[in-house]
Amino acid sequence: MIRLHHLNQSRSLRILWLLEELGEPYEIISYQRDPKTNLAPDSLKKIHPLGKSPVVEIDGEVISESGAIIELLIERFAPKRLRPAPESANYGHYLQWISFAESSLMVPLLLELFTKKAGISDNEFLNSYISKEKSKLLSYLDNAVDGKSYIVGNKLSGADFMLSFDLIMLAKRDELDDYPNIKQYALQLASLDSYQRAMRLEDNHDESRPS
Question: Which CATH architecture has domain 86-194?
Answer without folding.
Answer: Up-down Bundle (1.20)
